[in-house]
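Troubleshooting entry. Yesterday's outputs looked truncated, so today I'm pasting the complete records for two proteins to confirm everything comes through intact. If either block looks cut off, that's the bug. Protein one:
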Amino acid sequence: MNTPVCDFLKTNRKVKNRFYMPGHKGKYPDDITEIDGADVLYKPNGIILESEKIASRIYNSQATFYSVEGASLCVRASVYLVKEICLNHKKNPLILACRNAHSSFISACAISDVDVEWLYGDNQSVLTCNVTPEQLNDALKRTKASAFYLTSPDYLGYMSNIGVFAEICHKNGALFIVDNAHGAYLKFLPTSFHPLDFNADLVIDSAHKTLPCLTGTAYLHVGKNAPVFFKENANGALYLFASTSPSYLLIASLDYFNGQVEKFKKELFKTCNLVSLLKEKLSTIGYSIIGNEPLKLTIYAKSYGYYGYEIAEYLKNYKIIAEFYDNDFITFMISPLNKLKQIKSIEKALTLLPKKEKINVIAPNFVNLKKALSIRKAVFSPYEEILTEHAEGRILSTLTLSCPPAIPIAVSGEKLDENAIKLLKYYKINKVKVVKKI
């Protein structure tokens, strides 16, 4: 597979007299700017366009666009594109979204002034949001929403039935956006589980999370059957929110991966088998494994007698650092670049940890809050920070609990009630920003 960006950078290393940005003047030779021949990221017609077309063929998309500002940039662009296509067709730009949406989705809705109706899982969890097809179908018929925004896989490793959701969306005349940030690798399994292969319209992949790419790299994919408007306007949407100084080290990272796909596929197959065996082994000794994502290991720690943070602290003795942990869970993200010895070290350490009596302390139930203001109005209103215990009845200004991994207890514009206060205190959030009373 060709790697036009990497090839250009290799040739450009020979340039010794650099009178262009950046100021280090070639000390880091591949860290260049958009000079002659290097193309322009969001208005490409040369090597970057060629590289993106190769990525599009790999992923079987209508078009694929690079981001060097993470999946968050792609989320902002996607929300903007949905609003624009709705306005062009005189439709209401209302988006249905699972409550475990990334914080960048909420900020995108604030910036683009898009209304959201939230869908909640049936387990009242503050960490997962397993919406059913029936819920989605009913909500689309009731609200006439223009799009559905789904996060799959989620942070803990739950994967949704993308094909069923896509069919429901399109039957109801709604667009389907999938935040697949944790699943860029799903395309390369023996049988692809990537949302593009299940008729999603826009798919956001965070390349750096699961592929051998540098931090900050991501893709925005346009599905084969999506409106051509997305393909024609995606670069403009990305440019609207992006820096005008993109990192060529990150662009080259995406380009380089195009040439490594076949090798990655082979290693991925082996690693998925190793992770599967690891899950089976841990299950047999009493660990509760959750989620169905092939490269993610999430343990419900309390069932083994520990809090998640206690297991994480214990594993530091073995020089093992987990991706995420809290009171309830501990999550490990594994990739083909993890050596067999490293994966085995998780098994060894967890096997040596003695099982204790199950911890029955549970978080207060998640409760749906009433919307008092739009997200945009709440975010851009004057605010004050107050003690959580004094916040009942007040309208939240900005987010109080990171998402992911958590579902936000409250979203900007929602009125905090007694149950929300209990949850905030459970997660040790002692202060909140609320809209000032006028």
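Protein two, checking that the full record survives here as well:
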Amino acid sequence: MAHIVAFISYLPDRTEYEARARSVPQHEIEEAILPEGFPIYLSSKMAWDRESISSYEDDYILNLDDSQLKEIDDALQHFKASQPCHFPLPSLHSVLRGVSDNIHKGTGFSLLRGIPVDRYSAEENMIIYVGVSSHIGRMRGHVVVTHITDMRPPSDPTLSVRIAGHTNEDIPFHTDSGDIVSLFALGEPAEGGDSQLASGRRVYNELARTRPDLIQVLASDWPIPRSKKEDPVLYRPLIHYQNCSGTPARLLINFSRRGLAGYGDLNRTRLLSVRQAEALDALHFLAESILHARRGYKDGPQQKRHLLRLWLRDPGNAWPTPKLLQHKLDAIYSKEQSPGPQVFPPYPYTTV
């Protein structure tokens, strides 16, 4: 019977992680093999690290020039003056389709710079964000838009909430549920708040080389909490490999410590084994040393960190969804499960 961990912290603890790693018999590590069908090494532009990613800046950074910014402004005025049904970008459209190509077939992420958000109202920024992003992924999740900012009232800044994105605290490496996670920066904090990215393929390659036993653990079933009262836990792997002829090799990582470790007033539903706890920490610390995280921050009197988030999907470029993740994607994008008309609140709610 697997040894059970009574407690695992939401924020990874390196001392606990290293202690668990030392407890694994060396012969188990040396004798371990990768799960059937999983590759020894993933060779892909997506398998970048701190040093190599700088050589791909032309692929993932799009600095919008004056003509492109004018085209976005013209589309905004068109949208406001007519029936709000589309956001025409006749020249920029092909460039944004290239952004989608890079997300799915290149480095795995892109950065658009130059939109002067201070020039526009909250409603206009929302229109621009949704309009531009629709040329990258035309499908939007049913939640539509989320405000990522500290929503706790000044009178109770330590209020316990269920969503770390609604606080100013550290968020460990994780993946969101959406196919494409899109963020639009409206405001910066006085201090901190850096968003961090890591290559899941680079993490996989390191684990496959040094700890194939942890790949076995990650590719086995984990107790994933979900909202269905009659079936509150789904058992599935955290990593999925699609052995296909497509480029790049399709490795999907889907996990969050929030449900597995608990966060705020959200309690975890199942205990983890020692090996699962070690594997979960390994994802974080490998990502940190060489997936998606945020440093804690401090807002100022006139400086407040504020992002908008959309979960997008581009049917033309989207990868096939693993069977055990299909219910999750259906809940986000399926027309049959849509709760109704899409709503885009330009301001965050005042309560959490």
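Both blocks look complete. Sanity check on protein two: Residues 8-37+199-290 form one domain.
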